[in-house]
Amino acid sequence: MANICTLRDINSKGHRLGSIREVELEEALRDSCKSNSELIDDFKNYQKVYKKYIKNIKQDKLESAQKDAFSTQKEIIKKESEIISLKSELTNIKNELTNTKDELASKINEIECLGTLYPASQKTKDILDPVVMGGAEKNTQSEEQSFKSNSEAESKSLVKYFKSKKKMEAEINDTSLTNQESLTNDISNIKNELILQ
Predict the structure, then answer these.
(1) Coiled-coil region(s) at which residues (predicted)?
(2) Domain containing 75: what range?
(3) What number of other Cβ atoms are within 10 A of residue 108's Cβ?
(4) Cβ(111)–Cβ(183) below 8 Å
(5) Distance from C-alpha of 174 to C-alpha of 59, rounded to nearest angstrom
């Protein structure tokens, strides 16, 4: 029974009730409880401040995210309207291109039909008959004879500026042949371009 303590053992080892040491300990305990409660209150206050701060940060982030989303949505709407206008422009251009191709094809057919139905030499004859004055059929004298006999009269007249009808027809036939060749080349080039497109 060595573990049993009597009042005498306690009195000899400890301090008496109401001693200075006991008062000091009670004051220290009171101070520590007070400081502990103050720390708890401070901690609660800090938690409240932290929660408000986090809430403000979250709200600021939410507002900025909403602003970003709103501006992004505006940009998307603007880009969509631009895309729609560009698509309509593209369809208009395609329609114009189709119409131009159709017109070009009809012009090519018209030119080919005119070329086959009405030869170029006949066209030039019809155009030049009223223009040419003093041709071989209409004049009884050749230009050389009239030049020798009436040099003064001829200097005042315009006959020297006109070529004979045969020379004009020969030149026109040459140019019309080259024009027809260039026209057929142009038509074949245009057809090739249309086929490639």
Answers:
(1) 76-114
(2) 45-117
(3) 17
(4) yes
(5) 89
Count of residues for the chain?
Answer: 197
Q: For residue 10, tell me if it sits in a domain.
A: no
Q: Tell me how far apart the alpha carbons of residues 85 and 56 are, in angstroms, rounded to a whole number.
A: 43
From the number of C-beta atoms within 10 Å of its C-beta (0-12, 13-18, 19+), residue 165 rates as buried
Rounded CA-CA distance 105/187 in Å is 10
Angle, alpha carbons 115-116-118 (nearest 5°): 70
Instruction: List, for the chain, all residue ranges whose pLDDT scores fall below the cut of 70.
Output: 1-18, 115-177, 179-180, 183, 196-197
Check: pTM over 0.85? Answer yes or no.
Answer: no
- In this structure, the answer to whether residues 71 and 88 fall within a common structural domain is yes
- Burial pattern 166-181, b for ≥16 Cβ within 10 A else e, equals eebbeebeeebeeeee
